[in-house]
C-alpha cells in the first residue's frame, strides 16, 4: 500500500484536475450556447436559398442545366472531399467518428476506381489526412468560435473551381452534425453535383426573373454550395463545444469519484497506522508489567 504522504499528494492532484475540468466545462457551455445561436441564425437564409434553388431547378430542364453545378461530369475519376474537424481535442469521440467516416469514404471511392483529393477545415482533420498519406489541396485552421463567411470561402472556392474546370466529378463534405447537446453524429453529404432540393408544398408563384432563369441559377448554385459548407462549419463548431462540455463533465465526475476513493484509502491507511502504534504501545506496556 502507498504511504499516507503519497496518497495525500495524489488526492491534491486529482482535486486540482477536477477544478480544471470543471472550469473547461463551464467555458464550453458558454461557447456552445453562442455556437447554437449562430447555427440557428443562418437557417432562415439557407432555407430561403434552398426554396429559390428548388423553384428554379423545377422550371429549368434539359440543356438549361448544362454547364452548371447540376451537371454530372462522367469523364473525371477525381472526387473532392471537404473534411471539417476541430483544431483541438478533449471532445470525446467526436473527432474519431469524423475520421472514421472520412476513412470509410476514401476506401469506398478507391475501390470504385476514383482518386480522392481533400480539403480541410481544422487541424485535427488535416493531421489525420497527412498521416494517412492523402493529398490535401487546401486547408484552413484557427477559424475561431464564430467564423465569418469570408473565412470559409477560401477552401470552398478552391474546391468549386476544380469542379467548374471539369477536374472533379463530385465534391462531398464530412462533418459533425449537431443534433442536440448530447448527440452529435458524423454526416457525409454530396455537394456537387447539387442535389435538387425538394420544393415546398406551397403553390408556385409566376415570378419574372431578370436576368434569365438559367443565368440566375448558374450564379446562385455556387452560392448555395458555399452556404451549405458554411452551415456545416457552424454545426461542427457547435458539436465540438457540446462534446467537450459533456467530456469535461464526465472527467470532473470521474475525478471526484477517484478523490473519494483515495480519501477512503488514506483513512484506512491512517487507521491501520494508529492501530499498529496502539498495539506496539500495549505490547511494550505489557512487557514492562511482566518484567
Automatic annotation (TrEMBL):
PROSITE patterns in the cross-refs: ATPASE_GAMMA
Q: Which CDD domains match?
A: F1-ATPase_gamma (cd12151)
Question: What is the protein's name according to its record?
Answer: ATP synthase gamma chain
InterPro entries tied to this protein: ATP_synth_F1_ATPase_gsu, ATP_synth_F1_gsu, ATP_synth_F1_gsu_CS
Residues folding into a coiled coil are none
**A Pfam family per the record:** ATP-synt
Main localization of the protein described in the UniProt heading: membrane
Q: Which UniProt keywords apply?
A: ATP synthesis, Cell membrane, CF(1), Hydrogen ion transport, Ion transport, Membrane, Transport
The record's subunit annotation is: F-type ATPases have 2 components, CF(1) - the catalytic core - and CF(0) - the membrane proton channel. CF(1) has five subunits: alpha(3), beta(3), gamma(1), delta(1), epsilon(1). CF(0) has three main subunits: a, b and c.
Q: How does it sit in the membrane?
A: Peripheral membrane protein
